Each structure stands twice: as structure tokens, then as C-alpha cells.
Amino acid sequence: MEDGNTIGGSPDQESVGSGTKRSGASSGARPQNRKEFLHKFVDSKILTRKLEDWFESISEKSACKNPVFDVPFELIELQKFDYALEGVPFQQLIRMPNAVYASTSDAVEATAYLAIEDFLHASVKGLWEAFWSQDEPMPFSVACLYNASLKFYQAEKAIANGKLGDLCATGIMMNSRHSRGRWDHILELALLRPNLGRVLVESDQQPSPSVLGEALFFAVRMLLSRSLSRLNGVQNSNCVFVLLIDSQYGGVVKIEGDISKLECDVDDIYESAAEWIKKHSRISVSPIDRIWNKLGNANWGDIGALQVLFATFHCIMQFAGIPKHSIEDLAADHGSRLQTRRVERQLGDTSVNGGGLFRFQQRSVSPEIVEVQEEAVKIESEELMKLEVGSILWLEDSNWQKGYQIDEVLSDGELPYYIASPVEDPGKALFLYVGSRPSQLEPAWEDMNLWYQVQRQTKILTIMKQKGLSSRYLPQLSASGRIIHPGQCRRPSSGGNCEHPWCGTSILVTSPVGETVANMVSGGRFGFDEAIRCCHDCLSALSTAASAGIRHGDIRPENVIRVSSGVRHPYFVIIGWGHAILEERDRPAMNLHFSSTYALQEGKLCSASDAESLVYLLYFSCGGLVPDLDSVEGALHWRETSWSRRLIQQKLGDVSTVLKAFADYVDSLCGTPYPMDYDIWLRRLRRNIHEEDHGKEIDTSG
Fold first, then answer.
1. Whole-angstrom distance, CA of residue 162 vs CA of residue 158
2. Paired sense of beta strands 186-192 and 167-174, if any
3. Residue 141 bridge partners (DSSP)
4. Biased-composition ranges for Polar residues (predicted)?
């Protein structure tokens, strides 16, 4: 910020951004029109009035659905993020004054703006050093927005110039030479609004139309400015976050949409903006939760501050790219930290099922003091939790009970799963997955992976079944439910689970059963014919799933099996659908060797992402050199080098010309919005499958 500048004036080109480099395709709105539109788009109250009827309409339509808008983040995402932030220092030095609007004192309100600036600074600094770099200087700053000019000034300067009452927001911005900030440099805006949380918490409602309208106004300005910007490298520029904050509570509003679809009618700008919001945007609103305690300190580990931090994390990623340390990497350290704590407390290694929790030892009441050996407790707990060949599990569904006997214990490289057979049909082989016990006070990181493996995969397979997706190359849901544990269940009548470590644990049973590609490769059983058949069958599965808007998101050798039992011609099936993408907010699994380039860069999938992962699977499985990767940057560099030097195409060309051509096709689609043409490649691959495999056994469904 440059000292001596007088606050005031009107919005100019410096504040709204300039240039047309990333204008994109527009429905009739030329860059010059958008620039004029943005220059005139300055009054949030007019836009809010244009949206009043729409707000009322969606509220009435959603009367039975509370809340009206979806949430921007799932609880499982926040839990994982919470684990990643363990040990990350956040320190707000300027305390938030309690109940700021209970007083009319300008000094109290001024302190509130200073506290918000300090809170945002502490947030972005802590996240930058934890995920991106502790050595490089933070490339962001924080300042307040002046309503009259829509330019940015530090709060201290505005207060000194007597303009406190005209401050309307606080923003995190990229550092630049522009003293009063540029709108295309804004990562995130926070709106300080009175009594926001108290009213919402008491009424269990979402923010009022006036507050939401103002948030949408600033979101549209940010999106327009980015579309006119010369700034390179902004990722996912069609998504912005606006924070809603008062002196105690806060929440997140996420707005997504293709701003190129905005009809920039400069004669009716607010009606045009309102129509774009109604027709082309997607709005998500988080619950309003407490951020600051009564002393004015931020509760960094609570849900209110956590969802604000998570939004800020996504904003930093838009401007700074994928972090050097992923959330998964940092969260994975939770288990070792938990074990260190147990050693500190001299508890030893007596964890149950990796969850770091004891189950209470139930013993008969005795008047004598009996010494209980800690090792005995450990052994008994492990025996209760251990599943081995011959173990029988009983599954409880809403209408029936069914038993399964464990025939083989397997692993996907991270978690165990099992081959089991129904007690009443011992000759039938099925895959059985055992999930985590719900409602633990301290769920382990491994349990979150189990949640994806069992609970979420159950959801995906159920959706596939409901949508009528039929393909032999997709797994079939055989059964799902909860374990019936041995002994008497002492589950409380109010709900929840009893003290038995199996109580409430979820089970998923699927078919068919086969050998993973990972095992085939390690045993030297994955040849050229298998590679072509694998590519065809996996593409067919992906095509069928894509027809229902489902993408896999975790293609790797452990998640593809070869089915050979009971069939004339073996075939491949894609399993492990727990990380599948159903909607925009879902995130794929991150794998340095097999994730697509777009997934590593954006944390999302494009239409060709699963196919790109399939190419990597075939490349490595056919003898491609496996690089030693330890960071996202290294993984992206390897991909860029391998594709540009055509190493992947050449290796697959040694197997088959059609696989080489397929790799070239996938390379041309990576990162683009163009859809995969599955049919043409299924036909070409089918022609290259060994002659004896032709016939009705080949299913090209999809």
C-alpha cells in the first residue's frame, strides 16, 4: 500500500484489471463489452433486488429440504484437512472484540477490521508455509475494500483517514506493484456483517438474501475481472469463495460458473448478472459456525475456522498451483503422531484396529485387586479384531442375515480385503471389504481410507445398480450391511454402538473375483495379449460408467482384476470405485505414478483422465521404467518429459500399434474439455484381440 493516497474516487481500469488474453469463448460478449460491463457493475443492492424473487422461489421449492443450498465441503474432507493441519502454527495477534455490534464505538469496529486482516494473514501464512514453502516468501497480502471506489487499502490507513464506515470487505490478494490492488489478483473476499452468526445459529437458517446477494455481487466482479486478466496460470478461474463473518461466527459461500456465458448487456447490467446467476451458476453455502471465542482468539481446530481455512487453501491453489505437500501426505502423519503420543503416555502399542482407541475391558466384578497385564489386553483385542482364513462374519441388512467365511486375505497395497464365500454356498467366491467403525471419538487416518473403500464404494455401486448400468467389466454389488458381532450386543437404546470393537462396522460384498494386474505383473503373467484385452475391457467399463456421469478417479494395477474362473475367455474388471467422481465437488485419489496430469494440477478429472491413468497402468505393466517419484512437481515433470519424448508411445508401440495410437489420442485430449470417443477405440481394440477370443464373449457395452 502506498502512503499518501487519498481514499475515494471511482473504479478505474487499474482496479478492475485489463487485457483480453484469457477472454475465452463468449455468447456474444466481446472483451470490450465485459470491461465496460465491469466498470458499471458497482452496486450490490441493485443486484440483490433483482434476485429477491429468485431467492424466494428457491426457498419455497426447497421447503422440505433444509438447507436450500448444498454445502461446499463434505465432512470427510474437513476431517482429512484437520489431520493435515495438526502441528501447523496459526496465530492471530489482534484479538477479535466480542459482540462488536453491541457497541457503537468506532474503536471497537476498527479493531474488528484489524482483527479480520490479522486472521486472514495468519491463515494464508500458515497454509503457505505448511503446504507450499517455508523458504520462499509468501506472495500474498491482505487489505480492506473501500466501498466508494472499490479499491483496496490497509485497514489502518482507512481508519486514519476517517473512512472506517465505508469499508465493506477484506481480501487476500496477490502481491503486485499496484498500490490499490487489482480485482483479478483477489484470491478471496471476507464480508464483515453484524449479528450474522447469532441469528442463523438460533434459527438454523442460511444467510439472508441481502447478505447472499452481496456475496454474489462480489463473486461476479471477481469472475469478470479474472476473465479480463493478463495474469497467467490461474487454475479453475470459474470458481470463487466469499467468506461471511461477524465478530464470533463465520461461513463460506462458493460460487461456480462459466462467466463467458454472461450476456454483457451494458444497458441492463444487473438484470444480465442476475440471469447468469440463476441459469449458469452453482452456489454452495456452508453452515455458519463459531470461529472466535469470548477472548477473541480463533478456534483454529473447530469446524468454523476449519471450513474457512479449507476455502482459503483452495483459493491459494488456484493462484499458486498444486502444493508441494498434499493434504494426504500431511494427514498420513497423523498415525505416527498418535503413536508418539501413546509412547509419551506410556500406553505402548495397544491400539485397536489402527484406531488408536481402547475398548473397555469388561470383567466380572471381584472384591480383590487383580493385576491385569497390559500385554494380555493387547492380545485379546487383536484376536477379537483379526480376520484370518476360516473366520466367519455375519452381515445384517434390513431384512435378512447372511454369513461369509474368509477364504483368503488380500491387500490393495494399503488396506486389507478378503475373498469369502457365503456359508450356504461355499463354492461361490466373492470379494468382501470390512469398513471402519462409525462414531469413534478419534477416527484413524486408516479408517478414512476404509470409509472410501467400503461406505463410499457401496454408495457408488448402489447408484450404478439404480441407474441400470450393466457391464461384465464393472463389479456387481452382492450385499452390504453391518457386522453382527459375537456375544450379546449391548447397544444403547438411544442409538450408537456397544463396546464390542466390531459393533456397527460396515461390510461390502461384490463380485466377480479375480487376480489383480499388480499380482500378474509381479508374477510375469501380464503379456501383450493381456495388455490389449485389459485396455479394451477397462475402456468398456469406463464408457459404461461415463454414460451415467461417473468417473473412476483411482485407476491403478491394484484396482484392475483379471477374471478367469468359470469363464471360457478371461476378462478384466475395474474395481475400487470408492474415489469415483459423481459431481464437481468430489475429488479423485492422488497417485504420483497413475493419476492424470489434470488431476495432479487441478485436483479434478477431465474427460480423458481415467484413460490417461489407464495408459500409465499399461506402460508400467508392460515393462516401462518406474520412476522414483516423491513430489507432485516431480510427477508432473516426469509426465511432461515422457510424453514430449514419446517414451510412453514407443513402449506401448512395442506391444501393439493400436496401443501406441491410443496413447497418442489420449495425449491429445489431456486437459481439454473434449469428450472421449470410446466407441471407435473399443472397435479398434476388439479387432486386435487374439482371433480365438472373438465371439459373444467380447462385451462392448458402454
1. 6
2. antiparallel
3. 173
4. 12-30
